[in-house]
Every structure is written in C-alpha cells, then in structure tokens.
Amino acid sequence: MHEHISRLHALAGKAERLILGLMSGTSLDGLDVALCRIKNHGTATTAEVLKFETVNYDDTFRERVNAVFSRRDVDLQHLCLLNPWVALQHAKIILACLKKWGYMAEQIDLIASHGQTIYHSPKSFHQQADYSNATLQIGDGDHLACATGIITISDFRQKHIASGGEGAPLAMYGDHLIFGSATENRILLNIGGIANLSWLPSSQLPEEVLSSDIGPGNTLMDALIRQQDGKQQFDADARLARTGSVSQTLLGALKDHPFFKLPLPKTIGPELFNLDYVDGAISRSACHGLSLADQLATLNRFSADCIVEIIEEVTTNVDAYTVYTSGGGIHNSLLMENIAKKLPEIEIQSSQKLGIDPDAKEALLFALLANECVAGQSIKLGSAIPPIRPLTMGKVSFPD
Ligand SMILES: Nc1ncnc2c1ncn2[C@@H]1O[C@H](COP(=O)(O)OP(=O)(O)O)[C@@H](O)[C@H]1O
Ligand SMILES: [Mg+2]
After folding, report:
1. Do the Cβ atoms of 330 and 336 come closer than 8 Å?
2. What is the set of domains in the chain, with CATH numbers?
3. Which of 32, 69, 358, 373 has a CA positioned 20 to 30 A from the CA of residue 366?
4. Pocket test for ligand 1, best of 332, 359, 361 (most atoms within 8 A of CB)
5. pTM flag (> 0.85)
6. CA distances from residue 58 to 61, 95, 227 in whole angstroms, order as listed
C-alpha cells in the first residue's frame, strides 16, 4: 500500500481531526481561515472553531483575480498563471496564520480549500443544451499541499455537478450535519456576495433538506460602491445607504427577471448580478439620475426582499421556524433591519447562537466536507429533480 494511503487510513481512524477550512467567496474581500476541531462524522459530527481570521486580500490580489472574475473574455495565459499563484498566496496566508496561532504544519491533519471562484454557470444561466452545469474554482490543491506540507482536499464543487447538481450551494451538507435539530425548524441564511439558505426541517429527513441560492446578498452594493469610490470595498454598516431613499420604480425593475421565477433549488453568481444588471434595470425603469445613496438604499432593499421571498417560499405551510444568519452581510445593519421588518413574527439569530462564529461558518462547512471525504460516507440530501446522487466531495492532494 502506498504510504499516502496508509496516512489517509490513519487519519480516518483518528478520534478527532484538526482541519483548516479555507473560504474565499464572490466578494473577493479576503480569505477566511478557520482552524476546526472535528470529531466523528455524519450526523454524529461535532465541530469547534479553535481559531479564525479573515485575511484581507491586497489590491494586487484583487486586481489580478478581477481580470478574470466572472468575465466572458479573459486572457487565457493570465488565468493559467493565476491557478498556481492563487494557491501560493493562500499557502502563505495559511503558514502566517499557523505561526501566529502557535501551530506547526505537522499538527494539522487536513486543509479544506474551496479555491477562488472564477466563473459559475448553471444551465439555467448559460442555456446551451449541449453543456452541463459548470463552475470553476482556481487555486490548485497540489500547490497548496506542496507549499504547506499538509494533505489538502480541494475543488469540492465538481462532484456535486457530476452527481446531478449545480455545484452550489454546498452549505446544506455541513448545515445538516451539525445544525439539524429535532425540536426546531431552522433556516441557515448566509449572506455573502450571493445569499443562500439551507432549510433544515425538524423532521431531519434528508430528502426534506433543501438548499438554494437566493440572488444578490452584498454583490450589487459592493460593485456599485467599488465603481464609484475605488477606496471603499463596501458600504460599511450601510452608512451611505441609510442616507438614501428606496426607488420603488427601480426596485420593481430589479425584481423583474426570470431567475426569480425558476423553481428551487437554483444557483447564480455575479455573472448575472453585476453592474450591467443594475444598468439594465435603470434603463428599463427610466430611473436615471438617482444619487449613489438612493441606488444603494434600493439595492439594499432589493437584497432583503429577495431573501425574504425565498424564506417565505421555503416555509409555506410551516408553523414556526428560526433563522440563523452568517456571512459578511450580517454586518450591514440596514440589510438586517430590512429583512427583520418583513418577517416580524420570526426569530432571527446569528449562527453564534448555535455556537459558530457567523464569519467563520462557511470555512467550517468546507472543513466538514473534507472530514466527510476522509472519514465519512457518501451523503444524499434534498429532493432536486433530477435527483442528486449520494456523493463525497473533494479531491485529495498529497504534499509529496
Ligand atoms: N461592516 C460591514 N458593513 C457592511 N457590509 C459588510 C461589513 N462587513 C462585511 N460586509 C459585507 O460582507 C462582504 C463579505 O462577506 P463574505 O461573507 O466574506 O462574502 P463572500 O463569501 O462572498 O466572500 C463584504 O464584501 C461586504 O459587502
Ligand atoms: Mg469573503
């Protein structure tokens, strides 16, 4: 037997594993690094985030990735060079975090790397009959493993597509494993660049669990402010949006898109929800000349309304449920107020209430997927049509 396989075998038999979860979403804000202690597997899994940090990307990183990010026309050489380069930047960040936290690479059992999404294109978006759902994350796992000396599990989304899914959202797998409850219907709402949710009914029946993208979380607000003011990456605490007024006419035009009529589950990215989308809605509604503050106020309400509409769709005929939130959008207080106003009867809590830092949750979810890849079993969740086959996600890279 190859010594790599015996190492994996030994890892799978350990009572607990230290897994470093890495997440970098569509916001291109930074790399979320979560050192997680994970015990058991499947629904017996318990997880604890021991250390967490979001390491902000610098201008060079953002500029280089933005040159290909969600673009139809790219310099192929640049994309090819970025694949290992992104991995090496992530490796540097990992090694710096471990040093800061007082851990040696040898103490870490696995890296779970999401990679940097470059393009996401489900069939509903590309509409080309000859092609399947597709998504592309870069930051190669072999480079991460070699540069850190840690076995790396990466590229989780391809198996989901190969098994009949759209490659996203994968949140429901980890959410089901650690947040499922027999006494409470739960919605786990993550507001990143794109917002998504997992529906975890108290029946805990795998076929009733559902996960879907919602539409824009922060992505349109971020894009607008980044275009107008190169120094600001987001509307911190919605300070500018609070000074504006919602344009109902523009809001109506923003909501008028076939994506919102697609059945659940569905996925989408900034390939659709970008500044061209906003410009199109402004033209159709003849809302030219709105101030930046008014546009931000309207986009903020748009995101909130999209989130509430899907929550209501998922919970039709459900008596009671609690929403647990995570992702950078929860720091946008106006967004959270706009959501809460439309769901006055519903308890909305941070995922902290369930013991998990809301900024670390997504990185933890990938650590959970890596744990399942090594020590778990194939999982079947949801009732998508056509169904998604039982699956194990992630590709294994050894350091040598
Ligand atoms: N203090 C804040 N005020 C408003 N928005 C914030 C704040 N902190 C973070 N955000 C938003 O959260 C985004 C990052 O969220 P994140 O969950 O990391 O998304 P992603 O998974 O797409 O990277 C930022 O781009 C910004 O829009
Ligand atoms: Mg982020």
Report:
1. yes
2. 3-170+360-397 (3.30.420.40), 173-354 (3.30.420.40)
3. 69
4. 332
5. yes
6. 5, 17, 17
